[in-house]
Amino acid sequence: MAPSSFLAYTLALGIAAAIPGPGIAALVGRALGTGFRRTMPMLAGLVLGDLIYLTFAILGLALLAHTFETAFMVVRIAGAFYLLWLAWKFWTSGLTPERIERSPGKRDGLMSFATGLTVTLGNPKTIVFYMALLPVVIDMTGVNLTDWVILSVLTVLILYVVLVPYVALASRARSALANHATLKTVNRTAALAMTGAAGFILART
After folding, report:
1. Fewest beta carbons less than 10 Å away: which of 95, 164, 168, 203?
2. What pLDDT was estimated at residue 160?
3. Taking Cα atoms as reference points, which of 102, 108, 87, 101 lies closest to residue 178?
4. Which range of residues forms the domain containing residue 107?
5. Count of domains in the chain?
6. Over pLDDT 90: what percentage of the chain?
């Protein structure tokens, strides 16, 4: 691939990633509720989902998504309902000042990662970008193994550069909280953000 193709991909993915959607809503909601460090596994899951779709597109497996449409629908629905469950938890109990500094367990990180992955796999914006727009941006027939590696590295870097500021800003707002009334507002905001993300996914299923 020519350097211009990599540049075109970088710009296209950067713009697409920066546009608010279910992934960003879920990240912001998680960061508001649990902070920066406990949101990073979710971000890693989101990134892995993008890498999976990138690989599908390069291998010419766009047809796979249509062939196994039911499986993709199940993934979308499962991710949406898990987000709704998280929203309910934040709305009904959420965090208190005493629980803010509690260290996350291994299971919490794994569940956060799985949520990020399912959100991306069920995100219509991600599907459209990799399965429909990507072939317009670059010549998929000329992509070899080296190109895939470069595109994968670019994908990881771009997504972290674009999405980490969202997480950091939401976490910073959360870390400034000091009382129950304010934390209740943040818990409700996180719940609404996650509910909105789940609603968007279900509406497009």
Report:
1. 203
2. 96
3. 101
4. 3-11+22-203
5. 1
6. 21
> Is 186 inside any structural domain?
yes
Residue with tokens 């976490």: 171
pTM of the complete model: 0.68
pLDDT of res. 103: 42
Residue 78 lies in a domain: yes
pLDDT for res 52: 92
- Whether the CB-CB separation of 194 and 84 falls below 8 Å is answered with yes
pLDDT of residue 107: 59
Domain contains 16: no
What per-residue confidence (pLDDT) applies to 63? 54
Residue listed under structure tokens 């909105």: 196
